[in-house]
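Consider today's protein:

***
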Amino acid sequence: MAPIIQSVQSAVKKSAGLKPIVWTIAGSDSGGGAGIQADLATIADLQCHGCSVITTLTAQNSVKVSLVEAVSERMLLAQLNTLVTDMPPKAIKIGLLANQHQLNQLANWLRNFSTSTNNELDGRASIAVILDPVMVASSGDKLNQHRLDFSPFKGVINMITPNQMELISLVEAIDARATETNAIHTNATETKVSKANVADDSGSQHKLTDTQNMTLDCMVNMAKRVSDYFECAVVAKGGDAPWQADKAHDVYICHHVEGGSAEHNNSVFILSSDRVDTVNNHGSGCTLSSAMASFMAQDFVLHDAIVLAKAYVTNGLKHSIKLGQGSGCLARTGWPTSLELMPHILQLAVDVKATDTAPKEVALAVKPSLGIDQQVNNSLLRTATINFTKLSTPLGIYPVVSSVDMLEKLLKAGCKTVQLRIKQDVEDMQVVSYDKVHSFVDEQHKAMWLAKYGSGQLSSEPKTSAPIAAKYLLEQHQSEQQQLEQQIQRAIQLGRDFNAQLFINDHWQLALKHGAFGVHLGQEDALVADLSALAANNIALGLSSHSYFEILLATQLKPSYIALGHIFATTTKQMPSKPQGLTKLACYVSLLNGHYPTVAIGGIDGDCLKEVAETGVEDVAVVRAITQAKDAVVAYKNLSEQWQQLTESSFQTEPTQQTESSSQFQSKSKSKSTLPTQPNEHAQYQDSDITASQTHLEGI
C-alpha cells in the first residue's frame, strides 16, 4: 500500500485543472440501465470524469437477471490499486457488492486509503464516499444471494442511500447485532414495526416483505438508527414507497456538514417532490448516488449535492425512455437549472427533550407537538400561501452600511436602495439571546430555535452573583436598545423622505414596529422571525443564502429578493462557508432567473464588477467598497455608473465569450432588463409608490 500512497499526491497535482474524477465501485448491468453503465453516464453528464471498479458481472435485461458473477479478489484489488496511483478520486460511489468477502476487502482498502491520503488531496479533510446498499434489481431479482453485513463500512462512508426495503433490512441487521451483543437496548415499538415489515432470515434466502405498513414517522426513526449506527448522513429514499401517494418523501439526516450553516447541522429534513408517474425507473438509485458523488466532487456541500441529485433524478424520470419489455431507463438531462425540479425542504422540529443547549425549564416547549406528516403538510401549505411584497425598482448597486449618517449621504446622492446593518456586540450581554427569540410564530418555531441555540440564558436578568453588576448590565442593555431603536426609526423616516427602498438587517421587530420598507434576514433569523406578520404588513423581505440548499429554503418563503454569497473572501462577517466564486454564482443565477431578483454579495468592488456581471446576476450588494472608501458618495456613484454600463452593454449585445461557469452549466449571461416579466406571485417588481405602501404602518 505504501508505494501507492506516495504517488497519490503527485497524481492529484497532474490532474489539477481537469474534470473532477469520480469513482464508481459497482456491478456491470449488461442491459445498460443501472450499475456501472448508469453511473458512468451520470458522471459524464454532470461534468466529471468517471472511473470504474467493477465488482460484479450480471447477465440481465429489462425483465430479469439470469446470472450474477463476482470478480476475483485479485481483480478487485488490482483495479483499486491501479487507479489510485494515477487517477485518485474526489468522490466515490459504491453500489452492488457480490458477497461479504468482497465487502470486507473494500471496506479495509478504503479505511487504509482514507487514513493515509485524505489530508494530502487538494487540502480537503476527506473524500466523499457514498454507499448505495444495492440488494435487489428493479426486476425483483436478488443481486447478492446472502444478506450482507454492511457494518465494516462504519466510520468509512459519508453517506448511505437505502430505499424502503434496504432501510428495513439495515435496521433489522442492527437489531440482530444488538441482540447478539446486548450492547444496544432497542426501542420496543421500533422493533415491533421492523418485525412486522421484514420477514425472518432463514439461511441464505432472505425475503423482504412489502412496505405497506410503513409511515413517515417510522421511516424517520429507522433512518435515525441507521445514521447513528454508521456515523454518517442518510438519505432514505421514498421513490419506491407507494404508501406516500402522490408525493415522494426522502428522509435526509445529517450531522456536522462541512461548509454548511450551523443551524442546519445535526438535523432531520424531509425532501418532498411530486411523484413522477412512470414505470421507467430502472437505475434511479444508482443515478441518485452517482449524481451526489459528482456534485460533491465539484466542491458543493453535502446539502447541495443531495437536493441537486434529487432534482436530477426527477428530471431523468420525467424524460425516461422504454427500451425493452420491462422497466425503462432514466434520461441524462444535464445540470439541473429548473426551480420546479427542486424538492421542498422541511427541517423537522427535533424532539430533544433535554439537550446540552436546551434549558431544562423549556423541555416541554422543545418537544414537537405535531406529527411529521402534519409538519410536512403545514410547510407545504405555508409555501403556497405566504407571499412578500415585490420590489418597486431593481436594487442595482446596493450599499450595505452600518451608519445612519452614511445612509443619509447616499440617499441625498440619489441612492434608491440601501440596507442598514447595525451589529450589536453581544459577547458580554447574555440577555440578548432572549431579545432575539422572544417572538415566535408558534411552539414549533420556538422548539427549533431552542434545540439549536438555547443556552439557558432566557431570563431577563443577566446571570451574575453581583446584584449591582446585574443591574448595571441590564440598564446598559436597555440604553443600547433605546439607541438602536432611535437609529432604526430615523433611518426608516429617511427612507420615506427620499422615497427609497430601505432594508433593515436582522432587527425585524423594530422594522415591523416602525414600518420599514423591507427587512433583510439570514437563514438563522428566518427560522424565528414572525414572517407572517411581516408579509401581512407589506414589508419586503430579502434573504441571504450561501448554497443551493439555502436558496431553496429561501424560495419557499417567496421573498422580495435573494442574496447570493459570499462570492469572494470578506472580512465584514465570519462565514461558515467558503467563498462561492463565480462558477457557483452563475449556477445559482441560472436557477433563479425569471423567478426572483438576485443580488451578489461578498468582497465585490470595481475591480471584479465585470466578471460578476457576466454571470447574469441582476444586482450587486457592496459593503467595504463604499464604507471604507475615502468618499462613500463618490464610490457609490462610480460603481453605479460602471454597473449600468456593464448591464446595458450586456443587454445590447450578448457577450462573445462566456465565462467557464456559464458555458459549463449553460447559464446565459443576461442583465436584469432582459429577464422575462413574471405573472402573478412571481412578478419581480411592482409599480406602487414606496411611500404610499408604508404610510399605513406608521402607527404600528
Remarks:
- The two ends are 71 Å apart (CA to CA).
